[in-house]
Amino acid sequence: MTYKVSKEILDAFPCYEAMDNAPEDLSLDDQMKMYYLLNLIREHDSKLKELWMANKMCGIAHSYAGHEAIAVGACMALAKDDYITSTHRGHGHVIAKGGDVRKTMAEIYGRVEGYNCGKGGSMHIADVEQGILGAAGIVGSAMALAVGAAYSSVVLNKKSVTVCFHGDGGTSQGVWHESINMAGCWKLPVIFLTENNYWAVGTEFTRVAAQPEVYKRAVAYDIPGILTDGFNPFAVYKAVKSAAERARAGQGPTLIEARLMRIVGHWVADDESYRDPKAMEVWWQLDPIARMKHYLIENNVPPKSLEEIELRAKNDISDAVEYAENQCNDPTPDTLFKDLYANDEII
Ligand SMILES: Cc1ncc(C[n+]2csc(CCOP(=O)(O)OP(=O)(O)O)c2C)c(N)n1
Ligand SMILES: [Mg+2]
């Protein structure tokens, strides 16, 4: 049975790609891992609003709910020693690249046991051992970091590829153009992955971009530009896999536009006064979790196994919340100037 999508959505989302076939190099175990990660990220970020309302979180956070296919599809196509750079909406990237949800949650709670010893919060999570070079609250800033990481791979003669996740809002920053230009000139092993969710806070991308079809801008840097369905983990996987092969072969960067819709609010307490949140609900038809579940069931995976995975993801997040809330500690005032730089001697 085909997965049903309304005509209204198909008309509004021409890059829809049906999930009919898994990529040939993804085993069933890989697909089940993908399904688990989609659920883990959804559970993780669905908790955020509740935590913020209960005043348990330090600072604010942006939910990756609905975006999961991009981080999971991309990171499944990478190796452990590949790098990623992230954004203010970064938990999905971190978890998909192998981050530990106990440590992300502890960081969001501002605890010593968190990734940044409680001093970075939601928007600055990094785990260099897993190749997660860091989330960044400054829109567009990770572009230059990604180019630096890719340059280091060339200088150090490593085969690592860097994926630079960023939003459509980031593509209007000067550094976006400068970074792709430099990477194009030097044929660096970097993949610029635009998550075009049509919105930058309350600004519609089509209103502020002279060329809102981001992948078409690749022509200006003489690199390939790929448009893909950002609600489809298989489609994103295939795009990133081919771009990574190209990068590893020394052929330079690729610009991938993963298109989707930001179905949720910009941040945990966004009242979305600039649009009608009810009108957004129709987009949940493209929910990557529902689509992948449908695909797996159609391909003879027992629904019970999938429910077990969903439950495992739920339990893993409950455990992470319990850990952050009851088993972790607040930083003490004497550590105020510690853990701010890789080398504390600097201050
Ligand atoms: C340089 C800069 N300008 C403005 C902001 C405020 N800001 C935070 S998120 C955001 C929108 C980003 O939109 P986009 O890049 O499309 O990512 P999305 O939130 O849609 O994932 C803005 C303007 C910022 N953090 N940095
Ligand atoms: Mg956006």
From TrEMBL:
Cofactor(s) this protein requires: thiamine diphosphate
A Pfam family recorded for this sequence: E1_dh
Superkingdom to which the source organism belongs: Bacteria
Keywords from the named record: Oxidoreductase, Pyruvate, Thiamine pyrophosphate
Oxidoreductase as UniProt keyword: yes
Chain ranges of the Dehydrogenase E1 component domain: 40-327
Keyword Oxidoreductase among record annotations: yes
GO biological process, one term: pyruvate decarboxylation to acetyl-CoA
GO molecular function terms attached to this record: pyruvate dehydrogenase (acetyl-transferring) activity
Name this polypeptide is given: Pyruvate dehydrogenase E1 component alpha subunit
Source species of the chain: Desulforhopalus singaporensis
